[in-house]
Amino acid sequence: MANFKTLDDLGDIKGKRALVRVDLNVPMADGRVSDATRLKAIIPTVSELADKGAKILLLAHFGRPKGAKHSELSLSMIVEKLSEILNKEVMFVAEMAGPVVQQSVEILADGDVAVLENSRFNAGEESNDIALAKAVAANGDFYVNDAFSAAHRAHVTTAGLAHLLPSYAGRTMEAELKALNIALGAPQHPVAAVVGGAKVSSKLDVLQHLVTKVDHLIIGGGMANTFLAARGIKVGKSLCEHDLTDTAEEILEAADAANCTVHLPYDVVVAKEFRANPPVRTVNVHEVGEDDMILDVGPAAVEALADVLKICKTLVWNGPMGAFEIEPFDMATVSLARTAAALTKEGSLLSVAGGGDTVAALAHAGAKDDFTFVSTAGGAFLEWMEGKDLPGVQALEI
Ligand code: AMP
Known about the structure:
Blueprint: E1 17-21, E2 28-29, E3 32-33, H1 37-40, H2 43-51, E4 55-59, H3 79-86, E5 90-93, H4 99-107, E6 113-116, H5 130-137, E7 142-145, E8 167-169, H6 171-185, E9 191-195, H7 204-210, E10 216-219, H8 221-230, H9 245-257, E11 261-263, E12 267-271, E13 280-284, E14 293-297, H10 299-311, E15 314-318, H11 331-346, E16 350-354, H12 356-364, E17 373-375, H13 379-385, H14 391-394
Parallel strand pairs: 1-4, 1-7, 4-6, 5-6, 7-8, 9-10, 9-15, 10-11, 15-16, 16-17
Antiparallel strand pairs: 2-3, 12-13, 12-14
The structure holds adenosine monophosphate.
The site of adenosine monophosphate (AMP) has 16 residues, from helix 8 and strand 14.
């Protein structure tokens, strides 16, 4: 694993100004934070820095203002909730750089916390503009990155600052990098990967990388249909990227060459309509009718997949096995997630999952808390599964 400094490497930081990149990009409903999971994730780093007497300036983006000020995307909206979660007063500063920030830092006491305005209100943030990076860095003595979810971007607040100031991984970033490294960097074999979700096209790089890394690749969700079609199986009206069957075939060949066993469903749950509780049939993949839609992996395949997980030591999971938002097409996802959770609890499996839909699916299955590690990062988690170097992580390397 890449080597990076953590908060353990900080010396005396009493009175020092800490620029801390966090993920405050929370969902809102009616002007209020509707899910505070990401806010809670910053508690370990912020509390530790506050206890050590640093003056903490939080940096984060919110939505996609694309370099211009949009009052409806101001981080001022989350200050009240953040203050409640951190159990301390949080100051809001309406700029990210310049004299307003400097004056605000001067009135902060040791251990105080301020949130600087949405980093993406600045045109230079996403282009990693050096002048903006220098202006932000001028108000800090050191930089901490605790936002793994933004680490696939080379922006001022995720990468640029790390080149200008002494830099450290925050506690949540550190935990995430360690968990991901254990799961794919230096895993215990056999390793299984579950890759599901709608389309092959959005996860081509993931699949191509995983076949070289894992012993068992379990393909579910809509994307399995493209693989079934590549094998000459008729998938009726199912979601299927027929133009990608050659690519799917290439992935299967690459898997063969790398000794990776690919598991495709051999029974499936089909319906003629995409709605809750329509008439459904469970059929062998060779019996899918012309007007059928495959909406979930069938119970026999799920049982066989559970047996695969039982012989594995490590599991990486992204994407649901079926259209899990609509009953009864959540069955395969729920069942396999519960098996993985139980094996993890028993101690025979290390399980890492990530991606927005995946977190929702595991939560729906009641399995989320029993996984070894669940990453709420979407894009960054997928790029990590693709084997890519993440600029925000690279910038922390020593
Ligand atoms: P992704 O964002 O690529 O992980 O895709 C997640 C979406 O894939 C979810 O909204 C699922 O409902 C959908 N999905 C999974 N399996 C199927 C399927 N067999 N047919 C259609 N959609 C599916």
